[in-house]
Records
---
Amino acid sequence: MPRRPELDALRGLLLVLMTLTHLPTRLNVYSSQPFGFVSAAEGFVFLSAFLVGGSHAKTWDTPRRLWVSLRRRALKVYAHHVGLLLFAFTVIGTVGWLANRPAIRNLLDFYHQEPLTALLSSLFLLYCPPLLDILPLYVVLLFLTPFVLLAAREAGWTKVLCLSGLVWVWAQLGLKQALYTGLGDLAWLPVRIGQSGAFDLFAWQFLWVLGVWTGSQRARVKLPDERASWVVLGGAWVLSLLFLLARYEVEPFVWLASEPVLLDKWTLAPLRLVNFLALAVLADRGSPRVYHWLKPRMLVLLGSASLPVFSVHLVLCLLSLALINENETPLDSLEEFAVLVVTFASMLLVALHHRRRAALTG
């Protein structure tokens, strides 16, 4: 799949929203779910899967090449995750303990209680502290992707999507909790379910498989007829508007949010999934036009270096937690401004460095 700058821009926008959400500033109230009951995480996971599916759509006929490529990518993401873990456990953990920073101590409470167990289990992706639980999800999904693509080649996408959907349904019924309970009865587990990361792999794999399927199909099959797509587009607009009004508690649409369990982020609950798919349809249709109008070069720059930019944003987010004092007083206006400037300047510098390296090696 040729590089599409509008997708890089969209990924850059998601990185900006994710950064604003993770930083301890007052802006995270507005950036966490600005377009409905959907966060940047859903978009980032789906878009990553879409690009993986599109770039490997024609390599499933050569399984060895497919395995090598995706294993290399997964190991690269894993290396970033290990680097972030070591930074968090050493620098951030020490600062939180010595300076008595409650935000950091709460973030790494299990590590402070059992450092050796936490370190070893984190390397096996069993212990995933808050903020450090997205890359492990990505690593596991990348390792599973060859199985998905090869199964789709042998059995067809319909069976793969149905099986993935059934696992998602099971996740809504408590698969992760049942698995941890069962394993806890049979064997020793180093971490409890609350320390395994907020994202439910059994639910989020469905969004990933949908993304891989969509990217693969887009790379292999031409777009559907324009007239037929207007029906889907109209339905997406209606659903997105309904969820947006409910998100901002506009009467009489608040009833959509009356059952929080149906909008749960961590299990990718049904209404949240519907909301995301509606927004994804709009983004797919509108992103090329918006990109053509705005030409957001900075967003393209950030999106084209998504992994290193994501990693440096986590480093700055963790460091910014050290500014919250023992009374958990929020940052003042000057501190907020400084945190925002330093964070986004660092992200842009990392993206520029990545582009220069890519130009030299390419």
---
Amino acid sequence: MTTIQIEHGSIEKTTADAIIVNLFDGVRFPGGATGAIDRALGGAISDVIAAGDLRGKLGETVVLYPRGEIPAKRVIVVGLGPADEFSLEGVREAAAAAVLQAQKLGVDTLASIVHGTGIGGLEPTEAAQAMVEGTLLALYRYESPLPRTSETPPHDISSFKIVEFAAEKVPAIREGARAGEIIARSVYLTRTLVNLPSNIATPTYIAETAQQMCAENGLSCRVMEEDELRAEGMNVMLAVTQGAEQPAKFIIMEHNPADAPNTGAPVVLVGKGVAFDTGGYTIKTRTGMPGMHGDMAGGAAVIGAMRAVAQLNIPLHVMGLVPTVENVISATAYKPNDVFVAKNGVSVEIISTDAEGRLILADALCYAATLNPSAVIDVATLTGGKVVALGARTSAFFANDGKLHEILQDAAEKASEPVWRLPLDPAYDRQLKSPIADLKNTGGREASSITAARFLQHFIGGHPWGHIDMASGEFYEPGPNHTPRKYVPKGATGVPVRTLVEFLRRWA
């Protein structure tokens, strides 16, 4: 595991297998720390720039080899792009590009300046957080619990040191780096849960993982079993699981520090936890079923976010709810036209057994409403309609409250996990009308992500509520349908852990 260190000093005097400096696009005569390294190397960086081999494009890297002029064995110069376009996302991308280059070179010890706190104009705490996020998230690799004879483990960088010349900036950089490491390693947890095959990451395994995480981080955790769910009247959740051999679990995590204001009114995070989704009798296609082990990504994101909440000790009462089930076919599985009654008494006619996520969320949202929440946010890989409308990168976002929308929108922008607000117009409820129940569980293909959100709104109570539909955002697959990011390797992305944590920090 890569350790993170912060040091006051000069990068040109730092001993390491490699050091990282940077260059903005269009700069011909490097200044600051990069200029100091250039002078120490007799103008080597300037020569590379003059030759046209380094332009400063975002993520571009050049490696130089000192011959005893400085203690470091290598110098990696990474491009930051145009200075007037630089952002925290640029910090993440540049940090990721540099650390991946170092990993390719087999570097063990690595040191870097913070990107963007000079002419980039970024605040040191935020820049350091983004830098550590980009570095660690780029280094993440899924480690399978099952043996793979052909697997070659990637090189492990043992230490990453941030070196800051200005002593007055060191405390802020240390604070930001700590937050970045906590958040990145919480994303690790989420990514690993989503990457695991469903024969390992069963509802029971997910619940046990949440319990272990809570025990390690001082959170309380309760797991409700099926008999308790039945006593609670959570019948639409139980409908989804009635065909499965794996029992359903309802995970309740809580962070309630003594200094949290309004401790009786928690912010509640709710994550869809379908451990595998066959579609039930409304069975998925041959090509649509692979990848459905990731249909619990919303629940995994809530577990990861709760880890970060605890380690950051956010002064806010926060609860995380994860209803987790398998949606499979058997003689006892639920069927189209069956009717079930949710915890709040609303009856639901099943039209599609492949619209199961909103059913487990419905009862979870009803439960959340009993907690007297100050706000509720649910996260789910919910609809194909979201993918048609927005693709994989951007999540659909729905909110019944302007303040909640504004704070979450800003949090998502800062995390570079974009969301786009869609309408919650009650007129769409006409697509959910049923002749034999209060609601149908799907309104058909047209506006399907909107009608899914409208369905959920019947179960939330009267508090501020937001719904994130992150369908297809749970995995990154290189290709035209996915936006490449150097700090997101192929596989689970960990979206939207960083958005949720930033939202909670702002809400507090």
---
Amino acid sequence: MKRNRTLCVLLALLLALSALPAPASAADLFFVAVNDSIPLTLTILPYDAGSTLYVPYQVFDSRPGGVTPSYTQSENSFILFTRSLRLYFDLAENSVTDESGKAYDATVTYRNGVLYLPLSFCAAHFGLKAAMLQSSAGYPVLRFTTGSEVYDDDLFIEKAENLIAYRAGQSDQTQPPDTQPVTPVTQDPQPEQKPDDPPDEPPLPPAVVYLAFADAASMRETMQALESAQLRGAFFLTEQEIRSDPALVRELLASGHRIGLRPEPGAEDLSASLLAANNALDEVILQRSLLVLLPEGADAPVGFCFFTEPAEPLTAQEVASDHENAHLLVCTSDAAETLSVLSAHQADVRMLRETTDAP
């Protein structure tokens, strides 16, 4: 009887262990999103302490809603601030005060020499919403939102899956280190002298990318994504798109974007098609445009500043990785994901203008 009881216990234990999820590489990466972009990938994870979620201070390197981090080693302090708000963390006293001098009970912690901040407390002070999400592969994603986001959490994760998978693949190959840990100090340490170290190689210049947007159906979502990224773009419309939705044209103009023209798909007389589009634009906003986006191989129209859309366009990842050549990137959908990829690679995103040299 005793042997049978022992056997039952062992079987129950094996069943319980088999029900536990297998360890996954998802535990190695932590993504930080701001609205509809993912500017940071970290290898330092958050953790729960009772009812408080603590996050590594590096999450605020993403500057959500304009919140800027500042660490002063000589004063042993860490500050989060905007133009009008501030949280001052005295690391020696483990105290927190705001812009008015009010003190709070919130505390910081340290793990492996890394400074951790209470997420909800910090986000709430700056009017940010913070949500911990998870990708389909199990990667944790901290998403800050400011009210300017285009997608809700579920749709955002769905659209970000490809980028997360790419970042995970890159991390498996390179595993770049995160920024240096913040630790409390009593005096300024002297820098370690390493005279035999080789000089650092100069960093590569950022890739230059000119954005153009086509397809009127997605332009309102594109405008919201650009607003979140504090960018302006060049939007190209056909005569039919202008006449079908004149309100869209006015919204583009009011938001500070450039408005260009495209010929109707399959138009035999490109000049006539562009002239008709310009007449429609003039009727709506009393302005004409010189900017034109043409399909590859089309004859150049007289009197316009034209740019050519590649027949086989490169992806955002490809143009952001080319540090030697400027590229024209034409987007017809998923502008938020495109901007996220460009931001992650710190690409130099520029508006297409009449004076731009064609990439």
---
Amino acid sequence: MNISPSVLRNEEKAIFDLRSLYSRYGYSQYKMSKFEEYDLYVRNKDFLVSDNIITFTDTNGRLMALKPDVTLSIIKSSDKMIENGGIYKVYYDENVYRTSEPGASFKEITQVGLECIGDVDDYNIYEVLLLAAKSLGMISENFVLDVSDLDVIDAVIDDAGIPVSRKRELLSLIGEKNAHGVRALCEECAVCPDKPLRLITAYGSPKKVIPTLREILPESAAHLADRLEKITSCVEAEGFEGRVNIDFSVTGNAKYYNGLVFKGFIAGLPAGILSGGQYDKLMTRMRRTSRAIGFAVYLDLLERLEEDTADYDVDTFILYGENVTLPVIGDAVNGETSEGKSVLAGKIIPEKLKYKQLLKLSEGGDMSHENNA
């Protein structure tokens, strides 16, 4: 398909590119119904981006929901797809129905992502993290992928002696980078705050952060620093040096996630456009024995970016006179479109039309060009 990028919206270009990327890495497309039984979501409401769900009663009396999420449905169907410790690798391009923020109206949101479920090993984790970086790079050259490790955070918290009853509270404070709150909680628990506080300030490239981790992790958890260094440095080596940072404020929901969690950001957007991680705990809650990792790209956020075509409505406007023949006009239009340009032809230039190039066509087929670029 010879489609000019100039005629595709940001969201459409992203879908086109991402589906092609995931297919090349052996992911198959997952298709699902717009509806799912409400019970699936109500049992895992705090896993969802928003717990506002559109429901209706089916003709058979079951309470159904317009799907606000794709991952839960993929997990539900994964058991029949995994045999003998294999891997179930799928990507999706689905519309979900939810509010984007508290108090906002419901929206139909295009979400693209992938899930890797089954006997997940370090290579699978590396591959998913690499695809997250590649996904961001396809959307914008100016991006950063922030990576955290909940196992590392747990090990530091446990080593500090924080009571189990306060761990979730401390994790929330680390996610907020609330140094004052971390210090106060540690004082209340009569433990030294130094190592939890160092997690908050440990931000930057793997080369910068890993030495700090080796200093604050207990010896029994030293292998976690090795794993994090191995995976992130391998992603960097694929051309993403300077784009991958370690940031322990990326915490996710500890009820569902474990191990590596990550968020992706691109310039021009105030919120993360990509979010993912390992969710073995969610698998356990859904009575699955497999491991899992995945991410989603929230393409609705691209609406906030300036469109690539914002400066121009069309690449070329062809202005022709009353006596110019159809073959002459057709040849001129075909010449421009064959170069991947978008073209509009007419006897009058529409008011307020923005074009890069004006091509004036004479009766004999002669052309003169005027550039606005």
